[in-house]
Amino acid sequence: MSRSTAPLLALSLALLAGPASAQSAWRFDRSSTEVSFVTHRFGAVVATGKFGRFEGQLSLDFDQPERSRIRVTIDTGSVSAGTALMDGFIKGESMLDTGRFPNASFTSTSVRRMGDRSLEIRGNLTIRSVTQPITVTATVDGDIERAKRGDRLPFHADGSFLRPAYGIGKDVNVVDDKVDLVIKGQVMR
Amino acid sequence: MSARAVPGEGAVPQAEGRPRRWHPALVALHWLTLILIAAQFLIASPMQDETRNLVERFELYQLHKSIGLTVAGFVVARLLLRLVIKPPAPANEGRLLRLASDAVHTGLYLCVIALPVTGLLMAAASPIQIPTLYFGLFQVPHPIGPDKATYELMLRLHDWAGNTLLALGAVHFGAVLVHIALWHDNLLRRMWFGRGKAQPSLRA
């Protein structure tokens, strides 16, 4: 009897423990993921750029998204925005000042389910050592069930911040204050 | 009072030893400057169009700055050459016309000096710290650091000098038309290349 019930017991324990242990560690698939910014002027997109080096520590729970934890770190000096001149301008003291502030980061404080495939992630965005709360919307573009079995999971996320709050480009009026951040790609285990 | 009767510097038309044309180097610099300045005005408008892609705008700014510095070099070369090269006889009779002509020419020179100077200072003082790369070849040092008040002053002066240059350029062009179309005095020959066999530049 004990021989036949043991697997059953183990299975039910696993099921009970299921939700609690559904949180799993994920990271960005670097080859297919892009971290970029988009700036506007009078409604028109005037400058965009990508960050070549970034890292994500993603503790995701698909059953209880509220339990997910997300932290993204960006190497500010890895920005590329089309030309060396633009890169130099963005890395310069008046903008990101990458010499003094080589990293920018986002750390989630709360995650809330908005729909079947989208999450509202509140967190703290730190740029130039200034930390401000922002809200990011993340949407899953792939099959979660298949991802749970080991596939990569396509997604996109975006949020925005205001330059003046971080002291980025004081008196620099070639782009609007609001800057969009976009992360698009795939996460993998 | 006939101009011929007035002695003194620059007052004797067709004086002995006076060339009939401007020196070819000055002629070349004059027309090159005109072409470059025309390009500057053409570049200025898309360069300032804030809805354009910023990368393109930055490139236009670099081009504008590079051409502007070239114009500055041409102007300095012209002024230096004028110190050593004998000018042709005045193209106008009468004190008033000559005074007007001198005033317009002086004004044009002042504008083409003021424009690169205010332009470079504006770029240097701008809150947007972007290096000045001369046609991408080398970096031109900025004489001053960022300062909003200086930047705004230089911006105003640059605009003003640009508008004044347009106005004086129109007067200059209008005067040339009068010389050519009304007085038929072959004025343009003074500002073109030749072997010194040019017809008299004074109207007969």
Q: Element order, helices and strands of chain B? A: HHHEEH
- Greatest contact between two chains: A-B, 23 and 18 residues
Distance N terminus to C terminus of chain A? 39 Å
| Rg result of chain A | 20 Å
Structural class of chain A: alpha+beta
Q: How many E-type strands of chain A?
A: 11
Number of helices of chain A: 4
Please, what is the oligomeric state?
heterodimer
Order of helices and strands of chain A: HEEEEEEHEEEHEHE
Helix content of chain A: 10-25%
Could you tell me the radius of gyration of chain B in angstroms? Answer: 20 Å
The portion of residues forming beta strands of chain A comes to over 45%
Mean pLDDT of chain B: 88
- Overall, the morphology of chain A is elongated
Count of beta strands of chain B: 2
Average pLDDT for all residues of chain A? 89
Find the structural class of chain B using helix and strand composition.
Answer: mainly alpha
Q: How are the elements arranged and paired?
A:
The complex is a heterodimer of chains A (189) and B (204).
Chain A: H1 2-21, E1 24-28, E2 34-41, E3 44-51, E4 54-60, E5 69-75, E6 79-80, H2 84-91, E7 103-113, E8 118-127, E9 130-140, H3 144-148, E10 153-162, H4 163-166, E11 178-188
Antiparallel strand pairs in A: 1-4, 1-11, 2-3, 2-11, 3-6, 4-5, 5-7, 7-8, 8-9, 9-10, 10-11
Chain B: H1 24-47, H2 54-84, H3 95-125, E1 132-134, E2 138-140, H4 148-182
Antiparallel strand pairs in B: 1-2
Helix pairs in contact in B: 1-2, 2-3, 3-4
